[in-house]
Design goal:
The protein is α/β, with parallel strands linked by helices. It is built from 20 helices and twelve strands. Strands 5, 6, 7, 8, 9, 10, 11 and 12 form an eight-stranded mixed β-sheet that branches. Strand 5, helix 15 and strand 6 form a beta-alpha-beta unit. The structure holds S-adenosylmethionine. This is Methyltransferase.
Length: 459
């Protein structure tokens, strides 16, 4: 390739280059977009509107990948597997801008062609130009009408295509939502949007009111510690830099709080977080433990993730144990236990842009075995009359209600409690909490991640 046919990197738009490089890291190294991009923006000193644009492009493209690939394949008249990876990254980025942003067609096509030309030369850039021009001839709705399964014959397939979800995940959501097509559509649509940023005000350090005032955010509707941040980089919020606040979905805050408000007779202050890394809930429970003069043991099997807990619990009364929680060696008799189990993460797909295209149904089967073993151990470690809060960041019935039913039936004296009163706070009333005894939160109903909570005890 002769140098004169290549555009120099410095002539390219830095935001689009960062988005392209993020998509490449995701494709080539199985990287996580939400870890790669923020660091890249810092390293390259991309700030303000450019940083926001790069984020929208990288995350939006990663989320919509299945839909974009179907459109690209139709426009290119070949399966995307036959397109060179680096060219495909840019085609996805270009198609995303054309179909899902207000970027003008000319700019979306020409900047993408430039990106391809800068690395791959004239031939591939001509191909990119032809494909993206074809993509630009129809709106997203027109492409969906042309390529999605017929809604009359396959409504779940149609909705999965339209809202860029793998079909198996749409089926899981349908089952978790009791089969309602309207609910499914709303759930997939909410999951297909840019997620809101929720901050947590650490109790005893700063109130939500103070955090809202100093961050320019708004107090949350449910969690007494939550602040909704309308925009900007949470890293710029002073309370976060000082460790008085953090970034945490409001649903996770409700779960952490639920463990601490459950009624437990003669609470001796021995609390346990069985799967604590990276420490979001441990930090909130730890702050509440400090107020209640309790102590929290936090178990985490991964050393690296245990280090992350250490960074957020600072001086709180939290003791970290690097161990497998199924055989930690800790003495039974805990008053309160949180088991925030390792799970498929299907409830926070909006926050992990590429994960919906990576997860498989087979992952869930393995996790369910582990979840049951962990919950059985939690019931061994809790004192009679104590509480075990079992939570997942997944609404998958196999990981939620089925795990609880199975373990409850197999452990002598285990009983399920009504979890709804534990999250009844702020504007979160019974009318939003279903029939119980468990609680299932949803982005389209509660604005939170799709967190599940069951409360159990042992006689
Ligand atoms: C859903 S995450 C917990 C998130 C955490 N509660 C928070 O709010 O930040 C599950 C954690 O369990 C850990 N884990 C997986 N298997 C485990 C085991 N057998 N024992 C202890 N921890 C385990 C994972 O490494 C992961 O950090």
């Amino acid at each position: 390739m002769s140098g004169d046919r290549k555009l120099r990197q410095k002539d390219l738009d830095p935001a689009r280059v960062a988005a392209r490089d993020t998509l490449r890291a995701v494709r080539e190294r199985d990287a996580y977009a939400n870890l790669v991009l923020p660091k890249m923006l810092r390293d390259r000193k991309i700030e303000g509107r450019d940083a926001a644009f790069a984020t929208e492009l990288a995350y939006g493209t990663a989320r919509a990948q299945g839909l974009l690939d179907a459109v690209i394949a139709a426009a290119a008249k070949r399966p995307v597997e036959e397109i060179d990876g680096p060219v495909l990254d840019v085609l996805r980025l270009g198609a995303y801008q054309l179909l899902r942003t207000r970027v003008g067609s000319h700019a979306a096509v020409s900047t993408s062609v430039d990106l391809v030309r800068s690395e791959n030369g004239m031939g591939p850039s001509g191909f990119a130009n032809a494909v993206l021009r074809k993509v630009s001839q129809k709106t997203e709705e027109m492409w969906v009408d042309e390529l999605a399964p017929s809604p009359a014959e396959d409504l779940v397939g149609y909705l999965a295509f339209q809202y860029a979800h793998p079909r198996w995940i749409a089926e899981v959501f349908r089952d978790a939502l009791g089969g309602s097509a309207g609910q499914l559509q709303a759930a997939l649509a909410a999951d297909d949007e840019r997620p809101p940023v929720h901050l947590v005000a650490r109790p005893g350090y700063i109130t939500a009111e103070e955090l809202a005032l100093t961050s320019g955010g708004e107090e949350g509707d449910y969690s007494p510690y939550c602040v909704y941040l309308p925009g900007g980089d949470p890293g710029d919020v002073e309370a976060i830099r000082e460790g008085y606040a953090g970034v945490q979905d409001e649903g996770s805050q409700l779960i952490a709080r639920a463990v601490t408000v459950a009624e437990v007779a003669d609470d001796s202050g021995r609390w346990l977080d069985m799967c604590a890394g990276p420490g979001g809930k441990a930090a909130l429970i730890g702050a509440l433990a400090e107020i209640d003069a309790a102590c929290l043991d936090a178990i985490e099997v991964s050393k690296h993730r245990a280090e992350l807990i250490r960074k957020v619990v600072n001086d709180l009364p939290v003791t970290i144990h690097v161990a497998d929680a199924r055989s930690s060696g800790l003495e039974p008799g805990y008053d309160r236990i949180l088991l925030d189990a390792p799970c498929s993460g299907l409830g926070s797909l909006r926050r992990r842009p590429e994960s919906r295209w990576r997860r498989t149904a087979a992952d869930v089967e393995e996790l369910v075995v582990l979840q049951k073993e962990l919950l059985t151990e939690a019931l061994r470690l809790v004192k009679p009359g104590g509480v075990v809060a079992y939570s997942t960041c997944s609404p998958h019935p196999a990981e939620t209600t089925a795990v609880v039913a199975d373990v409850r039936a197999s452990v002598d004296g285990a009983r399920q409690l009504d979890a709804r009163p534990l999250v009844t706070v702020g504007k979160l009333g019974p009318e939003l909490l279903g029939d119980g005894p468990h609680v299932q939160l949803w982005p389209h109903i509660h604005g939170t991640d799709a967190m599940f909570l069951a409360a159990l005890t042992r006689d």
